[in-house]
Amino acid sequence: MDRLITHLRHVAIAVPDFDRELEFYRNLWGLTEVASDTGVSFLAAEGSPEQYVVRLRKAADKRIDLISFGAADAADVDTLAVRLGQQGVRLISEPGPVGTPGGGYGFRFFDNEGRTVEISTDVALRPHRRIEEAESVPVRLSHVVVNSAQPEATVEFYQRHLDFALSDVLMHPENGRMMWFLRCNDWHHSFAVARCPHASLHHASFEMRGIDEYMRGSGRLMRAGVEKVWGPGRHRAGNNTFSYFLDPQGNTVEYTTELDRLDEDTWHPGLHDFTDPMVSDQWGTANPMDEFVARKSFNDPDKGLFQAPPV
């Protein structure tokens, strides 16, 4: 398989109320601030070797600044940059030194809807540790899901240009296909695309150590009065647990665990009707997936399309 993307690194978001957002991710969500500059904070997951999994930036407009993926080496980064350029993808930068914590070598480009995507390699690994029993902090960034006004084209972009593979699709009997789960390694999905009236962040998901830690984390947020959108429950596609919450700026964030790892040589994508309660939630413990829940994750239209972030 000629796949040059190895894994998901981090998601960077810009928000107007930077201080409240930073307090949420650091003090409630369980991430660790590892570096900061004026109006920018880099937050790591204690169990992950990635330098950081979330980057926050203070800005007038709320937006996805970028989604970052890893590559195996500099040769693969160069190969991918040349390939994308030849295929007409709009590059923001040519391959070169990465100026964020951990350094490395990479480049950025716009996807078909104008999101900034970064590909990097040789980023220094961060000293990390084993998350202990009952410790309800994220182990790693599991996946990022985006809303798309043209989801079929967006899925095709990531399949054709970045060699993402389709794992499963969610559909509705009246509205057709609604969400596509894409993978860049054997995790069921590191990226997904949801049908929406506009482009925006659907949710970012963080893996916990296990079921107990996932429930403890979910309970901590509920006790703190953080708005819970959906969960706790267990999806069929990916077989992972889910609890969705809104951060102070209205972005949906998820605690999850036990996401499936696939045998990529034998896996065939499934088409799942999410009006079947067992598709949405195998446990039957979550609130119903209805129009109200869906609209919560539509988010505000992204103000950063085809505008490269300053950092």
UniProtKB/TrEMBL annotation:
InterPro entries with a match to the protein in the record: Glyas_Bleomycin-R_OHBP_Dase, Glyas_Fos-R_dOase_dom, MMCE/EMCE_epimerase, VOC_core
Residue span(s) of domain VOC: 7-122, 140-258
Pfam families found in the cross-reference section: Glyoxalase (PF00903)
One GO molecular-function entry: metal ion binding
Key words of the record: Dioxygenase, Metal-binding, Oxidoreductase
Alphabetical list of Gene3D superfamilies matching this protein: 2,3-Dihydroxybiphenyl 1,2-Dioxygenase, domain 1 (3.10.180.10)
Gene Ontology biological-process annotations: L-methylmalonyl-CoA metabolic process
PANTHER family, sorted: METHYLMALONYL-COA EPIMERASE (PTHR43048), METHYLMALONYL-COA EPIMERASE, MITOCHONDRIAL (PTHR43048:SF3)
Protein name in UniProt: Catechol-2,3-dioxygenase
